[in-house]
Write a structure and sequence with these properties.
Length: 344
């Protein structure tokens, strides 16, 4: 294998994420070479709009107890499967809380009790257990402001509609503060859970949640005195000619931070580079347009120049007096010699 093979180039033979870099790294180690690290992924330290919703389904091999344990960094035993999910060693968890509707029993404020009752209430092997909302929190806000913003949004959009919300705050001391919100899918009263509410999964409902998050976040930013704002609409709807970025995820960010190149990271870098090139082209175009407008305005405001004097040489016309020949007097027989002499 040549030394060029140790450069970080895509390897089509390994379609799964992470396999290509492992192959290249092993070949480089065999040659005693050290592969060059990937270019760091640029992260904008400013408020961004990120709202993702997914359904945690038993049909995809997932469980609500495992998801809740992972997001909260706790240990939860699944009483249905007798499996214990222990994520007490997970870092970057700032805090968590459970918000209950007014008619929910107090016992469901315990995380293990809550999600075990959810698991036991679903009998189908492909049952939908929970909806999860993931939102990026504005980095401009303080930790307390981030918590207050999230709590008010969750209370208004979900809890007041009858859902129980399990909220976990992550990475508050990084450039990627965010919250995971696990939501129940059935009605709840003093006795426990009731019927499943399919309308909560409607597209119109989800779009309302997306817009509401932008409204809540912008109100919090304005209240805190920040100029930054976020927009829930797509870039195309906003009239912005830019390719949208992709979600990296915690695992990809961790691998990239350790110098391990990933296909997801490569795609993110490609999008960032193309957007930078496009931004430069747009800036040059705008500058040219401003120059053209300035020249047009200057042409309209400036007065019309006076016509230049005609410097074409002209021939002088001789005066009438000088052009007349001198009068000649000649004697005639009728005039006397005396008159002739007097006239002379």
């Amino acid at each position: 294998m040549s030394r060029l093979g140790c450069l970080w180039q895509p390897v089509p033979a390994f379609p799964r994420n992470g396999r290509a870099h492992l192959y290249i790294a092993s070949q480089c180690r065999a040659l005693g070479l050290r592969p060059s690290p990937p270019t760091p992924i640029a992260v904008a330290v400013m408020a961004i709009y990120s709202f993702r919703m997914q359904v945690i389904s038993r049909g995809k091999g997932r469980s609500a107890t495992a998801a809740a344990a992972y997001r909260s960094g706790e240990q939860i035993k699944d009483e249905r499967t007798d499996e214990t999910h222990d994520y007490t060693g997970k870092s970057a968890i700032y805090g968590s809380e459970i918000l209950l509707p007014e008619n929910a029993p107090e016992r469901l404020s315990d995380r293990a009790t809550l999600w075990n009752e959810v698991e036991q209430g679903e009998k189908r092997k492909d049952a939908q257990l929970s909806r999860e909302v993931m939102i990026a929190l504005p980095v401009e806000l303080s930790h307390l402001e981030k918590e207050t913003l999230t709590r008010e949004y969750v209370q208004r959009e979900f809890v007041e509609r009858g859902m129980i919300a399990d909220v976990c705050y992550h990475d508050f001391d990084s450039t990627n503060p965010h919250a995971h919100i696990m939501l129940t899918m059935r009605t709840v009263d003093e006795t426990g859970f009731g019927k499943k509410q399919r309308q909560w999964n409607r597209k119109s409902e989800i779009e309302q949640h997306r817009k509401a998050w932008a409204d809540h976040a912008n109100a919090a930013l304005e209240k805190a005195g920040h100029d930054a704002r976020i927009d829930h609409r797509s870039l195309e709807a906003q009239g912005i000619d830019r390719e949208p970025q992709i979600h990296l995820g915690a695992k990809v960010m961790e691998m990239e931070a350790r110098g391990i190149r990933t296909r997801v990271g490569d795609e993110s870098r490609r999008i960032s580079q193309e957007n930078r090139d496009l931004a430069r082209q747009q800036a040059k175009h705008k500058q040219l347009q401003r120059q053209i407008e300035a020249e047009k305005t200057a042409a309209l405001v400036s007065p019309e120049p006076e016509p230049a004097p005609d410097k074409t040489p002209t021939l002088e016309q001789p005066s009438t007096q000088s052009a007349q020949p001198k009068k000649q007097i000649h004697p005639t027989p009728e005039r006397s010699q005396r008159d002739w002499e007097l006239e002379r």
